Amino acid sequence: MSHNEATATMIDSPGKSLTTNVAPLVARYGLVIVLVWFGAMKFTHYESQGISHWVANSPFLGWVYNTMSIDAFGRLNGTVELVTAALLAAKPWLPKASVVGGVFASLFFLTTLSFMITTPGTGEASAGGFPVLSADGEFLMKDIALLGLALWLLVDAIDAARRQATLRAIFRESTD
């Protein structure tokens, strides 16, 4: 078999590869696990304190400590993460709910990514500052990839919701 024939066979094969089937599941439920884990941790004093310097320096969230305690905001933040995880996980059964989860996750990671700019000390001062990142900066940098993943999951859920709506419309037409 020539290279061209092998390539054509691979491209024209009707079945999806195992990787093609598994990768979206790992992406979706991997993020669900991260959100559940981090969300549950926000119910601890340790984690609420751990995020407080990012929240306090944020022009978007800094005001919340005027209305609630650090621990109360940690619990609120954790609740949002847990709800977001549940909505993302529901995609096979409730794709429209997963669309909402994708929006929440995208906004969440966009907000945490903004901490790179608003939090003093994300650049490592002893190494000359930005672009050399401190531990905080390194921790926040991953949110670029998580934002991309959240946006991909949002689009995937939108596609699933459209497919579900189309199938329901076809079914209604066939039963009328």
TrEMBL record:
InterPro entries: RclC-like. It comes from Mycobacterium simiae. The lineage of its organism: Bacteria, Bacillati, Actinomycetota, Actinomycetes, Mycobacteriales. The chain crosses the membrane at residues 22-40, 97-119, 139-158. This is DUF417 family protein. Keywords: Membrane, Transmembrane, Transmembrane helix. One of its GO terms (cellular component) is plasma membrane. GO terms for biological process: response to hypochlorite.
